[in-house]
Amino acid sequence: MPASILEEVGGLFDARWTRDTVTRLSCPSCGSAHVAQVLGDNGGISYVCTACGHSWS
Predict the structure, then answer these.
(1) Which domain does 48 fall in, by range?
(2) Which of 19, 30, 32, 40 is positioned for an S-S bond with 46, CB 3.0–4.6 A?
(3) What Gene3D superfamilies does the record tag this protein with (predicted)?
């Protein structure tokens, strides 16, 4: 248990930072971070770059 509220808040910021850096995607074609996650035809997950239109799964 943290000794102060500041330690608790600091831990939350650290967790958010880790989550953001791990889950960010970039387009393999153009490198843009503007990526949308969509459902594929067979129920799988695919990704589409909203900058160049490239799609992949």
Answers:
(1) 25-57
(2) 40
(3) FdhE-like domain
Is residue 34 in some structural domain?
Answer: yes
Residue 23 is encoded by which pair of tokens?
């889950």
Rounded distance, CA 18 to CA 51, Å? 25
Compute the distance between CA of residue 32 and CA of residue 51 in angstroms, rounded to an integer. Answer: 7
Q: Which two tokens stand for residue 1?
A: 């248990």
13-34: pLDDT as tens digits? 555 555 544 567 899 999 999 9
Q: How many domains does the chain have?
A: 1
CA 33 remoteness from chain centre: 9
36 phi and psi, to 5 degrees? -110, 140
Q: What global pTM score does this model have?
A: 0.55
